[in-house]
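Entry for the shared binder. Reason: the reviewer on the internal report wants the predicted structure included alongside the sequence.
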Amino acid sequence: MQIDSPATFLRKRKFERGEIFTKYKNFMGYTCIDGEMVIVPEEADVVRKIFELYLQGLSFGQIKMYLESMNIKTVTRNEHWDSSTIQKMLKNEKYKGDSRLQKTYVEDVMTGKKVKNTGQVSSYYVKDSHPAIISEGIFDKVQKEMTRRSRVVYKEDGTVEKTGKRYTSKYLFGNILECWYCGAAYRRRAERGKVVWRCGTRMESGRDTCGDSPTLNEEWIKEILARNICEDRIYDEEIVRNKVDRISVFNKHIDKIRI
């Protein structure tokens, strides 16, 4: 039987009583004053705008582009936003006034290494722990929309199919490559003896509709994935299929690989 240290024991008691740690640093929308989470009005407006844009149909990349075009800075005053940060904001329950405590825990007290809590230790969910920026209704709509989009599969003929399965099309890249500019899936095309992938919107409606989206050589994509995802830097489709959720394509390179 593992015996908790005094510090760990006190932390657990705080969690069980619903007391949360509010020493948030660089958390968009909130600051900590006298141990309480307090809304920062101008930052809260940015948070609300992000939720609004997502429900209007914009992708993470499109929201990033909007924020940067409006000269809206991140919480750290950076001019450039990260699409994955926007995704995490949209999934964070703190924006509806709730808190999930102990999402991570210290795995090794000697090194202080923290790891994600997937059931190894207790976690606690506290409702109405602080003022909400987003209503519960809006927050839940966003979560449902995320689930809906994750179940949309783009078939090789350009049609869209909803499915509970992660992949169903003949070609893996048709389900994981997405255009950073318009959010459309990439589609396969054979040109001059090479296989390339191109934004579906551009293929359907012409260059003027999504002119900045790049065309990618399939072998180049495999090289990138082999280097970043696969073992021994050798491309393995099964590894990519199991590890990769989406790949955002931007300005002739892969912007983000979401695992």
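Summary line for the report: Residues 155-258 form one domain.
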